[in-house]
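Bug #77: duplicate submission created two jobs. Keeping one. Sequence:
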Amino acid sequence: MSIYAHITGWGTAIPEKILTNEEISTMVDTNPEWIVERTGIRTRHIAAPEDTSATLGAAASLKALEMANVPPSAVDLVITATSSPAYVFPATASLIQDSIGATNAGAFDLSAACTGFIFALNMATQLIRSGQIKTAVVVGAETLSRYVDWTDRGTCILFGDGAGAFVLQASSVQGGVISSVMRSDGSGGDLLSVPASGSAMPATAKTIEQGMHFIKMNGREVFRFATRVMARASEEAIEKAEWRLDQVEIIIPHQANKRIIEAAARGLKLPIEKFAINVDKYGNTSTASIPIAAVEMVENGRLKKNDKTVLVGFGAGLTWGAVTVIWKEPFPADKSVNIDFYQFLARIRSFLLRVARRIEGLIWGRKAPK
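Kept job's structure:
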């Protein structure tokens, strides 16, 4: 019997604070009209000081689990795609796993920049199809505002914060994630990067003084790359799914720049109305942009049950990829899952485990040989 991986729950977490083009124009030498003309962006959301990629990712995951009627204890795996992890380690996915109470789940981060959510979705799908797991939470979560140089008008106008999450479940019913394409060209790695903080350039007073911990981008070259690969990846995924292009109801692209999405539409010879676009409201939220756009399309009725859908992205690395999906409504359940109750239990459990480790440490310290 064939096993399929269906997307059965989805959720987002968007910070409340909105930063407008008008406000940015008081910070750097730019103007609101120029930003809209070049990028299509009008506003972006900025994380509060207490927000992290982990807290936003957990909030989106809980909404997705509630929609899917899946208790956190039934989750087998949490994959978090992020370009702005809460820490180098532990993995942001592990923090999310603990926060949502997924006590039986493995967890890991996946780093493929803005394409990361596509890669993570495919990883979870393949594990479900192979029978290794039954339920996964796939998260895209970002707090990129903390990696932005607010004096660099080439990058600070682009990025925003937020998170989106999907629940994937195994089913014998045909559908769900059908095909995938994952590609990389590391020769372009220097075109979009955060140069410092890794082992190649550890943090020093000099790297901080030079602003090497901020996002650096060759905008012209990234634009040229993106306009080439978006249509190509979509076509490859559609061909792998054995669909025709005219069967696709909606394409949900990475929301980096409206002009790039328009170029992809021209490359595929499709009307722009076939594409989900919300970059004007959120800016580039990297790994979170595709799930945020997908959830918005469901909420406004543009993405419906049984729609043939393409999710496509590109990012630093350079990376690009696409998946085809037959969309599904949440699985029916005998009763609704009380997510708040499960999160309360998760907090109690996490607290007790920390206390137990401290007590164990004190006991072991007394027993240790002098």
